[in-house]
Batch of 2 targets.
Target 1
Amino acid sequence: MSVQKPSIPQGTRDFGPAVVARRNYIFGVIRRVFEKFGYAPLETPTMENLSVLTGKYGEEGDQLLFKVLNSGDFLTKKNAAVTAEDLEAGSRKVLPKIAEKGLRYDLTVPFARYVVMNRGTLTFPFKRYQIQPVWRADRPQRGRYREFYQCDADVVGTDSLLCEAEIVLMMSEVLNTLGLTEHTIKINHRRVLGTFYQALGGEGTEVDLFTAIDKLDKIGQDGVTRELLERGFSEASVARLFELLSVQGSFAEKLQQLQSAFAAAQVPTEADGSYKGLQELGQVQQLLQDFGFTHFDHLEFDPTLARGLSYYTGCIFEIKINNVNMGSVSGGGRYDNLTGAFGLPGVSGVGFSFGVDRLYDCLEELNLFPEAVATTTRCLLASFDLENSRQLLPILRQLREAGVAAELYPDEAKLGKQFKYADAKGIPYVLLQGPEEQAAGQFKLKELSTGQEQLLGWNAVLDALTK
Amino acid sequence: MSVQKPSIPQGTRDFGPAVVARRNYIFGVIRRVFEKFGYAPLETPTMENLSVLTGKYGEEGDQLLFKVLNSGDFLTKKNAAVTAEDLEAGSRKVLPKIAEKGLRYDLTVPFARYVVMNRGTLTFPFKRYQIQPVWRADRPQRGRYREFYQCDADVVGTDSLLCEAEIVLMMSEVLNTLGLTEHTIKINHRRVLGTFYQALGGEGTEVDLFTAIDKLDKIGQDGVTRELLERGFSEASVARLFELLSVQGSFAEKLQQLQSAFAAAQVPTEADGSYKGLQELGQVQQLLQDFGFTHFDHLEFDPTLARGLSYYTGCIFEIKINNVNMGSVSGGGRYDNLTGAFGLPGVSGVGFSFGVDRLYDCLEELNLFPEAVATTTRCLLASFDLENSRQLLPILRQLREAGVAAELYPDEAKLGKQFKYADAKGIPYVLLQGPEEQAAGQFKLKELSTGQEQLLGWNAVLDALTK
């Protein structure tokens, strides 16, 4: 076995103790909010059959799936031996013969697969959350990884707008609990976008319109204009679009203005004279009011929000942190046909997802991680020699029995080295008991951050370490 | 996109809400004990480079690694295009050209890789724990999965036997906290096995002897005898071996008997007249006594314990649950050269691992899961109609503000259906407030397990749900 310099794959990361502790803090906040709202945990396997994954994320997504090689003699499986002609035809021809499994690409498709496989035993509406890593063979770059965690909450089997309102509540509670108070929860409705298309009079295609609007953040009004003109929209239509998109005022005022504008453009309404997208947004707002939601200043109806070309059919959501320069930290929406690809049509659901890496970066930039999160060991017992170590063992046991994370430096070493160890590990307290202190029935407790040293009896030590 | 009946890969599992909650309970107990002993969390990537994994688990292990196909056009990578000759030569020849990464096979090799990559910045002794899944392309069978979690704790950079003693303490605390009080923690020392070999007078090989002893549990004394005779050991030697293995009595008595037996067989001692394996076991026992360890009746010196042919060089551990018919739920030991393969020789460490699936099965068989673990939502608000739902929203908010996991049935439905939902989800309480109760400023709280219904004021409701 030759000696090698080890490395980890591009785009993947080791998380050392301090980072895991901080990530677990974020996961814990999210998990507690999800559970308080009645969402229950689900975990699905890392590997899914490629037949489940392929075709669900578009052509580009299929390329970005990590595929797992069949085990054993993968070239010569019965019914699927790789031939010289296959090799000639290239990777696409060979792939299905040598790989049947892939790594989870998101948490939504495995969730849909789970719902369909267990539809006979699940209780609907089914509310689940899922906090697991996903993998994408994307080109790694700053802030983009090939392995990263998603935190999803979805409810399927109901089209009640209460679910949308509760998503806003959950988003708000997670952000405020983390201290990310400077945020904007943006909300829109897929059918508002559809009504824009109708209001423009039928030029171009809906897909072209949504794709262009989705880029507004990145390429600005000029870029979107250019793109729409290229795609066959008239200058008058584009001008009309930006007039519609520029509605101002409160949530309710914007809804009202668009209602009037759509009516003026003679876009057909529902039987009751309303536009369904606007109407549902109004209902969500009303439910939040009934709830006693107090953060309306952080909720914005943003008619330019498009959330890509994904499967959403109703309300869509996105969160921006206002005082950090970063993309959205969360997004989601309602979909009417999540499980259709697996043979179970007509199951409506709504859900959203937090990106943990971005939340982490925001908390770090704003210095919002609580200090207590950083370390696990609270007290190091330092010893003068092996005999002293032996005497400290019952002390160590009693500290742990009191719930204090504690350790004894395991080797015979100078006190300076032991203090350095505590300092490097971020252990806040060092406890000593030399012959003098022992004779007096006391301990020396040193707080490393202040340098303060105290001579204390056992009960006072326990008090200091458990408070 | 054609409709398909979805499935998951062989040997993998979905974990629904009830199972996740129970697994998280086990993980939580283990994590808290690890942290109380000063072990800090580490997480490594799911994929490792095959150069890191290959050759670390023996020939068979290499076969059981899941390999990840290179992304993109994997057949024609520069410097590694697959040729017709490669195809002819077979899978082994093609593999290194199309796969550079594999899935984590255990937590030990990634830990060693991490230590070597970060040796400049880590503080030694480095105590880490790691709770993550691993993957093995084993033939799936009852109780053996292709994806399963391991919970490891290791300390490297010290050869202090305090670490061995603390492993016994951690094992004992985890098992007792889980309620698995009927257990045996078996301990042995690799050098005791080595001394057996010397005592037999140099027939056969050490590897053959250890391999045979390791099977004693499975094939019994007759099987081991047959195997050793086949491998060139004499009948006298085998008889002598079983005489040595059959020592009886307390921990200390067994140590004493073997010391005498080895001396009688004229096996060379250390300079101080001791046998190092026996001596270290004695020291571990002494440290546990100093600690005030009270469960010596569960600790057994088992000279037949061999723990396979792995990399252990010092003490070895294994846990059996006595009242469940199942293999060991935990094992570990000391190794002197964990990081040698990565160019960092001489780093001594000791660690152990819990198998969560087996612990889970034991708790289930013995009915030891606490009831409170089973559900997350504590109270369902049932509503009579949409108007009633709206009135219940502030109640829902206040319950959650008080930390009560609560949900409102989102659709208009008959009460019977809502109660059925609560029952199926294992929600213990249903809260109602019809017009009558509202007029009286009261609520109806029903406990589903007993059927008991109470008319209560708001404070009494909060009391009942938060107690």
Note: Chain B is about 40% helix and 20% strand.
Target 2
Amino acid sequence: MSAVDGARQSWATLPARKALRIARASAYADGRILRSDRIVEALEALIEPGDRVALEGNNQKQADFLSRSLAMVDPAKVHGINLLISTLGRREHLDLFERGIARRVDFSFAGPQSLRMAQLLEDDKLEIGAIYTYIELYARMFVDLTPQIALVCAEQADAEGNLYTGANTEDTPTIVEAAAFRHGVVIVQVNEIVDKLPRVDIPGSWVDFVVKADRPYAVEPLFTRDPRHIGDLQILMGMMVIRGIYERHGVTALNHGIGFDTAAIELLLPTYGEKLGLKGKICRNWALNPHPTLIPAIESGWVESVHCFGSEVGMGEYIRARPDIFFVGRDGSMRSNRVFCQLAGQYGVDLFIGSTLQMDRDGNSSTVTLGRLAGFGGAPNMGHDPRGRRHASEAWLSLMTSTEPVARGRKLVVQTVETFKAGGIPTFVETLDAVEVGRKSGMPIAPVMIYGDDVSHVVTEEGIAYLYKVDGEERRAAIAAVAGATEIGQTAKPKVTADLRARGIVAYPEDLGVSPLEASRSLLAARSIDDLVTWSGGLYDPPARFRSW
Amino acid sequence: MSAVDGARQSWATLPARKALRIARASAYADGRILRSDRIVEALEALIEPGDRVALEGNNQKQADFLSRSLAMVDPAKVHGINLLISTLGRREHLDLFERGIARRVDFSFAGPQSLRMAQLLEDDKLEIGAIYTYIELYARMFVDLTPQIALVCAEQADAEGNLYTGANTEDTPTIVEAAAFRHGVVIVQVNEIVDKLPRVDIPGSWVDFVVKADRPYAVEPLFTRDPRHIGDLQILMGMMVIRGIYERHGVTALNHGIGFDTAAIELLLPTYGEKLGLKGKICRNWALNPHPTLIPAIESGWVESVHCFGSEVGMGEYIRARPDIFFVGRDGSMRSNRVFCQLAGQYGVDLFIGSTLQMDRDGNSSTVTLGRLAGFGGAPNMGHDPRGRRHASEAWLSLMTSTEPVARGRKLVVQTVETFKAGGIPTFVETLDAVEVGRKSGMPIAPVMIYGDDVSHVVTEEGIAYLYKVDGEERRAAIAAVAGATEIGQTAKPKVTADLRARGIVAYPEDLGVSPLEASRSLLAARSIDDLVTWSGGLYDPPARFRSW
């Protein structure tokens, strides 16, 4: 044994490197406050070639003053960085690769920029580390992708660097923690620098620099769905979900994905759900962003609690006036937190329901389609059966089909799809586009969003397939039975379908006591954004683009 | 549509109720500081019958001044509370039930108190809500088990209630966040109240009261294993793991469970691993508490990073002197965090390895044995294949056996067991004791720790079964082939075993080039606690009970 073998000069190279960065940037700072007009030079002084840079950019809020400034640095000074980012959502994110400032990216979602990204990949201007769910990417920030630089945003800071992130907490504390405690430099753009914060969300001890942005950080109203666009098929599917899934399994704690299918369900609770006598029995506790379409259910007394990943533009005053429902601080504004809400969505609730763009005959589904390298954000984290779960609930146990001594329950993972998309394109397909996208982009596995064996229920306008009850060929037959007039649907054999219906494996509306005639927009608790504002007593303040009055 | 149906008097009943509690307790407080000598009365003023009380008590640190005080309240005033606690580890935790102060418990682990707990359950003095992994319990604190009261501990506080949790962060910020933003009252016992904190870990904005404890909070050196107790069989198994799993699959990021099996592996890296030329190729990034047995590997340059759930008694100065390895703050002391480390363990690393007490022929395993209602802590969260994972790595992909277009990799979940426990009791059994324990205690499912279908490799002193390669009967045969002289092992058929070995499904030491003759204690990099102190250059300061000099 010898402690000398492998001895090294220093065990503090990382703090020393950080001290050098900070010393270089001090020319552009007054204490913890960086000069806004010298931000580009400050970033050049702080960032070294090849650094891992965690840039806050998610499906809603964006550290856009910092990303715009980063795109302006001199590539001779800063190049080849590895960008860690939740959502590649802005033009300048890809300019970083165009200009050679960044080379490699680890990310979760690239919706609006996915076409350009595919092009940069083909031109060898960009390398993909991997595509993650949000919390996988954060997890690796505590393992082997620890950031040397964190660029994040907050509402306000004080002179000591204490931060108020306000209602849109989202990823900020997680990224800051990963960098701050691994000798990374934490730089925060803020809308304002103030003397006294309404509350401290992140302590100044974790922050190196704050900089006042040229304008408030960018934020998108991503979770707002105008009820005007909800059609009769979505209402029919919503009725089936309430009747055939929420009521049947006693679902009290749940998460809804984004989309008109789930918005329809939210707006049916105070009408159709009420008529069925389900208030207080289902849908009490939510892990969900503050969807405006949830307002009527809240106002009608359906909802006990909502914990949020982030906030939603226009919902601030409403949330502040409903402290019994939302998680709020002593100052009255909301506290959201993506990691805790994803944790709640994975381990704390019994049901995830979301829509998809394609599904194969085994129930595998994806929102990745040809030419689009979109990624999934958070859906796979909630849209799977979490095998690390050990506590039981009524809903979870109701999916237990085995009588083995070590049998257990499972999570309800519900996928809603209309059998055809706009333009008559079938949703049910032989092979997911994701398979070809993955092959073409050289991805190690196909970018499947939700795996078929994790899906417990598929809902279409034709009916519900209770997939958790069956395996193999019967599972395929159950999917075909609800796949309508698509080619997959046409493989359904009437006798087999009749048997599946008799055994409760497939249910059509009439099997559930749901009348398609009743499925009309008059059943929605709100039929417009204006209705939602009225329900909220004028507290909901929708963004201009959603106003029609 | 009517906003009037279901209208309610107030949407702020929770903040109002909190304000009342705080007003009642103000008689015992000076600002945010509660009087230590009136703590029992203060708790009586703050807690209402039936409250959900989150009491910080985990496998290491304990808010024991608060738990001892809580056990002294008048049950006529405070009764029927629902205790939310990670580890029911102290005598007074169960006194709460004996005295009627608490009625129901939601928990993760009850090691030292599990016998008494079973008795209280039988006497109908205690109800179990559910048994969780740590992070499932936290997840529900953001859904339907939001705490009205949080009783936690920290090293230091200032007069504004800002907290320094120091190296043992663990659960504290999570419990505080769940309570603080849902109108719960946050009460923190601290070792000291100071003018200036070394750093702020939790902002005072989230804290209602601090109270100076009668003595520093209790903390256990749970992750210290004396190398003196590592035997030749554990060394042999450790060599097989390094050769047959870590090297073969290229495992760079990993988590080790507690135990002598994994301590042996840690101590073999600088000797056996070095000889195999594996330094830098395996075991670089760890999600792990600061195990003292990892010191020789760190000193020999094997380890790039260690992120921790909590700290370990005696490791403070060593960690402070190795800031390149551990996550530390600007003040030099460690920042741990159980949620982020569990997240890293679930989604960020490729391998979990742990020991168990019993395994059935399908590979299901449990540490719950007759008469003991122990629970599992964090193991199931890391000891399963996380189906929400979407990013690939070399190790993860190496377990992909299917050629389907939607095939994916999987996590390495390794279980190590000696075929017989002390006293000749077989580890491999027909039916887990957990099945009977579950039935007797009226649990909805049997308390299985790791499910067989999540286990990728089983390692015994006989060899390794590569379970991920096989299903059904072949899987059972592979387990039997390494189950030695147990009844299950005796069902192995020599011809079948020979075939499994030829196909790489089972490997015995000779198949791996591992010589049992070499497996002796002389191969350990440290053979005593004293050796570990020497390796650390005198920085590791073991607790008295581990000192023999």
Note: The CA atoms of residues 76 and 101 of chain B lie 8 Å apart.
